[in-house]
Amino acid sequence: MTERSVPRARLARPWRQVLARSDAIRLAPSAHYSRPWRIHDLTPDFRLEDVWALPTPGRREDLPRLVRLLGAAGPKLDSSRSARMLWAIRRRIGARLGWDRPVAGLGSRVRPLRERLPADLRAAPPHERMGRGPFLPLYQLENEWAAELANRTVHGVMHIGWVPDGAGGYRGQMAVLVRPNRALGRAYMAAIRPFRRMIVYPAMMRGIAREWRSGPEHGEHPASEPARG
User: In terms of C-beta density within 10 A (0-12 exposed, 13-18 middle, 19 or more buried), how is residue 115 classed?
Assistant: First the structure.
């Protein structure tokens, strides 16, 4: 199964129907930029790489559950052999070339986005972490969560939004924003783009759907109140 983009005209379609046909749905950039996310003010110098609809139908208050799932499931989300092979190749190349050494990361090669946080986000309640992965949380609100990472190739942000699904419930939406590190970073992002979109993210979406359905909290959810703002 390969991913497919969903044009803006179809964004209003009930997402429970769309997600029933495919677990890997890449959205138009407007799906991210049209919403009043706080991440916009923190990343004006970042490029939006991808936006994905997550196969996680739920209730208004289920964002923390999604973040916990992403952290706890870890490698199980990339369960296809092709995706595992690509990650293994990336780790091997990164180790040989020193892409992931601490000197190339946050606070060394790049200044953390956390330094850009306004006072209200700094004072926000404790946020969910994503297990032992490379992402460090930035902030968590009722309907969005963000984390960052940095290595020799890019400074990247994963943004998870929790949006109405058009059928009375909610679902996750993941945006990936990047600031490539000069020519190396631009070449790296261009080289991995087709593999990410055709192999890695579709495998990840299937894993998310599987873990979400098997979770103890899965089930039919009552209609949620409309989103604010």
Answer: exposed
